[in-house]
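Usage

Read records sequentially. Each one opens with the input sequence:
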Amino acid sequence: MKALHLRELFAQDAARGERFTAGADGLFLDYSKNRITDETLELLVKLAEESGLSAKIEAMFRGDKINITENRAVLHVALRAPKSERIVVDGEDVVPGVHAVLDKMTGFADQVRSGEWKGHTGKRIRNVVNIGIGGSDLGPVMAYEALKHYSQRDLTFRFVSNVDGTDFAEAVADLNADETLFLVASKTFTTQETMTNAHSARDWSLAALGGDEKAVAKHFVAISTNEKEVAKFGIDTENMFGFWDWVGGRYSMDSAIGLSTMIAIGPDNFRAMLAGFHAMDVHFRTTPFAKNLPVLLGLMTLWYTDFFDAQTIAVLPYEQYLKRFPAYLQQLTMESNGKHVTLDGTHVATDTGPVFWGEPGTNGQHSFYQLIHQGTRLIPCDFIGFAKSLNPLGRHHDMLMANVFAQAEALAFGKTAEQVKAEGTPDWLVPHRVFEGNRPSNIILAEVLTPEVLGKLVALYEHAVFTQGAIWNIDSFDQWGVELGKVLATRILGELESATEPPMTHDSSTTSLIRRYRAAK
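and closes with the structure output:
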């Protein structure tokens, strides 16, 4: 396939643009501009089958403990399962518990949105600040930005994640404490960055509210499972929203971690988003691989990663509301499949998880598209577009979508030296204006960005990640790679804060840097 050009593939098959497509529940995928033939697709599907993908899908939906290094089930699909479904983990049907939390979230969200929930001084809440990190931040931020069109505009939403004090200071700089509600999202209620920010928020609130400790219960709620630590912080445990160890952080935006989302867009829209997730779950579980959107997307990524040595995938949403979607996908894809050993602990035989990155169109066209078009690296692209704008304004949307189709066409077919010369270009300039083409892309289209469509899009990529992990035979649901740095940081923190320099056993570089920082601060 490396010697074949997309120009040839399209010239040989006039119907290629119609044949290499698939659709499900309002999402349409055109994957015709990939460097594949019918035989390639057939072989990739066989690879998925021989890797046991079907059995692994069923194991996940069944609640088997497929996260083997942590001995946990992987059941984000249960978060959007209808009440009628039954999913058993360790002898317990988890679906009723999921809906009990959803109902509790609904009651609380309605109170805040209506103004019924009052702060310590009797004022209604006008500001909601979500404090979390990783999946407890990236999902809520992305969802809020993506669904801002549907949000209640008399409420202000802010998100604090970085332990850099600037993040918190800027988030609350223009807020009144007596009108501000903090959502503290930490399963254990011990996450260092989150709890550092939460205590700063507590101090900030009490300083403005007269120091009355009772104020904490009116201005803080917890998304956690550690009742003891939540109560110790001063939060009423009645206002604690739980989740489960079978929900990974990067798969948790549709759990109680999404409380800020529900407050912003309302319970009905939140449940519509869950319905979108579930529709894609059903499609993934029941559709033959050759027409299965997540499987096709996953196979294309694996094809370029392992057979073309592609290092990265660009995700390019032509929808301003999806500006944080690439950042969200970075955690989903790279924390899941950035693994170097297989399930049995042996070193992988092929490359795994590529780097995901991107920006909304058309901004990227005026920055990094140059590298994609004429650089030396192969960068497959996912373009995401919509038939209708949520903010119709003159010709804007037609221009936006014209760029989607034009960029994919230009990447695929390029411009030959002969074509450049025919335009009257001087010979010396011709090489600079040649586009090699043969740069692959997918185009994902939907009618309009709704909560339901967002759920489908997120689930599409969730299951594409699962597909890749199943074929690579890795554990896509642990993240031990984040642990070592955390442990070392805790140790170094004590050395930075010590009144006198303690004995240090680091390498010479780290020791020198610690000493330089201590002297400078």
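Summary fields computed downstream for this record:
- The radius of gyration is 25 Å.
- The chain has a mean pLDDT of 97.
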